[in-house]
Amino acid sequence: MTISEMLGQSGLLTLLGLGVVFAFIIILIFCMKLLQVLVHALKLDKNDPKATVKKAPAAPAATAVSAAKPAADAKAIVAAIAAAIREKESV
Questions:
Q1: What is the pLDDT of residues 14-66, one digit of tens each?
Q2: What are phi and psi of 7, to 5 degrees?
Q3: In degrees, to the nearest 5, what angle opens at C-alpha 9 toward C-alphas 7 and 14?
Q4: Quick check: pTM over 0.85?
Q5: DSSP H helical segments within the chain, as ranges?
Q6: How far is the C-alpha of 50 from the C-alpha of 11, rounded, in Å?
Q7: pLDDT at site 60
Q8: How far is the C-alpha of 63 from the C-alpha of 73, rounded, in Å?
Q9: Distant-in-sequence, close-in-space partners of 45: CB < 8 Å, separation ≥ 6
Q10: End-to-end CA gap in the chain
Q11: Longest dimension (CA), the chain
């Protein structure tokens, strides 16, 4: 067996391997899309858009409360950092 024959076989084997991997990825993507459609059709998905819309207004109310007391929050943060440093130094 000559060098050129071996290079030809290795090139063919490389292309065959790449083709098999590419085909598997295509089949995997197809199966995942099919599963997505099936789960959505059977209404098995946990992410309900109506539930996320109802929960969204709660976040601005929480920020409005925390914006009313920035000094208290800053003092709490400084106290937490100081306690963590003290605990770290004592170890």
A1: 999 999 999 999 999 999 999 999 999 999 888 666 545 555 555 555 555 55
A2: -65, -40
A3: 95
A4: no
A5: 3-41, 49-55, 58-68, 70-90
A6: 54
A7: 56
A8: 12
A9: 39
A10: 70
A11: 83
